[in-house]
Structure formats: C-alpha cells, structure tokens
Amino acid sequence: GVSGTSVEKNITLDRATRIELSCRLDNKYSHLKRLQVTWKRGNETIRHMNKTENSWSIQLRILDYSNLGGYSCTLKVPKIEGKEKPIVSYEGDTAVMICKSFGYTPIAWTWYMTNGSEQIAINDSLLADKYVINRLSANVTHLKILKLTKEDDGVYWCEAAFELGKSKGKLQLRVLSLMVPLKPFLAIVAEVVILVTIVFLYEIYSKKKEKSA
Question: Where in the chain does DSSP place strands (E)?
C-alpha cells in the first residue's frame, strides 16, 4: 500500500487448522531488493518461513484460542547510521560528520541543523564558505563544517530518501573553546608559581631572621 498506512483483514476460524498468512508488496515496488520485512504476533517477532520475490509468508497451527490474536507484517525503511558519541572539536577547526546506509541505496541525502525545535536544511551552495557536502558513494554522505564557532554547537540530522519513505540519523557536535585544553596546564603552572613564591618568601624570611640574630 501507501507508505505510512496499514491494511487490516479479519480472519474467522471455527475449528483447529493450519493457516498461511502472506504479506505482498505492490507490483510497482517489485524492483526493490533486500527489503526489511518483519512479522509479529502482538509484540513478538515471528520469522517468516516462505519468501517469493514480492511476498513473505508465515505458517501457523491454530490449535486453541491462545494462537488467536493480531498478526502484523511490517516493511521498514532502512535505518541510517550516524555517530552515537558526540563529535568534539575546537573553535576555528573543521568538523566532519558522516552518515551511512548499509545495504540500501538512498535516492537523495539531506542534512539538517537544529535551531530550537526547528530543523533547518543545510544548503552548501548558499554557504559555500561554511558547509561542504560530499556524497562519497551512493550510500555515504559527509558534512564538513568550516571555521567552527560556538554557534555551530548542537544536534545535526542526515536524512536519506527512499522510494518507500525517509529515514534520519542523529549526530551531535560539541564545539569547545581553545582555553579548554589549556586549563589543566594553566592549573599546574599556577600551582608551580604559588609553590615557588612560597619558597622565595620563606628564603627571604629566613635570611632576615639570621641577620636579626
């Protein structure tokens, strides 16, 4: 059927029997290969036993009422892989974010940045000095952000468009100030300076005490 819609059918049985349930894909999508199809009874996943080019079936033995209930067949849009851990970079540097689609080829890729609750599409042709988008292969896309500032810190999304729908991957970018990596070093320097000052003052105090004696 149409992406995002479902079709329901009720089957009534009056005795124990064997039954085969089939899920068929519309003929106009027959060229699609390696689709992710899942059969479930309630929330329990059932492995489909028979598969033809555009059909996935399960065979059931209905022995009593415990085998009755709702069975569903779902065709999923492929998941897009982003990077789970935040990407950390510094002001003035360049950040590169990568999204991949394994085994499935998107028609097109789109990158978005988050501004509050709104997602804004990134167009590298309008901001060529800031964003560079590269589609290295049909299944991989890169977003390069140049001359990072604190305003670039936030959540980014890559969206892959398939014939049956769209799928998004989430990435997070953290932009740190150049002072951040220097803080531990400055703390050590401060401790050394304080220690040297204490030793120097102690030496002066000791010399004055010797002269007084």
Answer: 17-24, 36-41, 44-46, 50-51, 55-62, 71-76, 87-90, 95-100, 108-115, 118-121, 131-137, 140-145, 154-162, 165-176
Phi first, then psi: give them for residue 203, nearest 5 degrees.
Answer: -60, -45
Q: β-strands 44-46, 108-115: how paired?
A: unpaired
pLDDT by residue (tens digit) across 180-208?
A: 666 676 667 667 777 777 777 777 767 77
CB neighbours (10 Å) of residue 80? 23
How far apart, in Å, are the Cα atoms of 165 and each of 99, 102, 122? 17, 16, 20
Q: Are 141 and 133 in contact (CB under 8 A)?
A: yes
pLDDT, residue 1, reads 46
Residue keyed to tokens 């220097």? 182
